[in-house]
Amino acid sequence: MRLTNYSDYALRSLIYLAVKPDPHSLSNISDIADSYHISKSHLTKIIHQLGQLGYIDSVRGKNGGIRLAYAPKDINLGVLIKQIEPDFALVECFAAQLPNTETKPHSTGLPITLIAELAPTPTLGCVISPVCQLKGVFFEALTAFITVLERYTLADIINNEDELATLLFR
């Protein structure tokens, strides 16, 4: 399983906002993009979606900016990834996609049981798909991947906050 750059940048943005010296102060997209040496225009789309999903608050105006909407301990990584990753189709026969959810970060999000209900169905692409045992292995691996992510919050990955801040806020 490989996450998209979109998910990577979303996680990095949340890390940046979580380790700011003053978590209630506002940041801007340019600061985040500059800290990570990533595209501001690409990051703008990501920040917009994080705002729509409720992970960040945005304040408009001359002195506006963004900040976390929840404490890092309330942002579950598995829920976040299921909300922003566009597709969990590891192989061609995983045609079903997880629907985008409007759940808030503090909710449980899309349950892993729903992934099982959307289990791979045969497609016209692979001739062995109706009897293939490999897709079951991939499905089990995907389920395990999501289950591990669901055990962690943003707080778990910023427990070295001082070291992160040193690198991000030079």
TrEMBL record:
Annotated TM spans: none
Cross-referenced SUPFAM superfamilies: Winged helix' DNA-binding domain
Pfam families (UniProt xref): Rrf2
PROSITE patterns per UniProt: HTH_RRF2_1 (PS01332), HTH_RRF2_2 (PS51197)
Keywords: DNA-binding
Xref: Gene3D superfamilies: Winged helix-like DNA-binding domain superfamily/Winged helix DNA-binding domain
Signal sequence region: none
NCBIfam families: rrf2_super (TIGR00738)
Name the UniProt record assigns to this protein: Rrf2 family transcriptional regulator
Species per Swiss-Prot/TrEMBL record: Psychrobacter glaciei
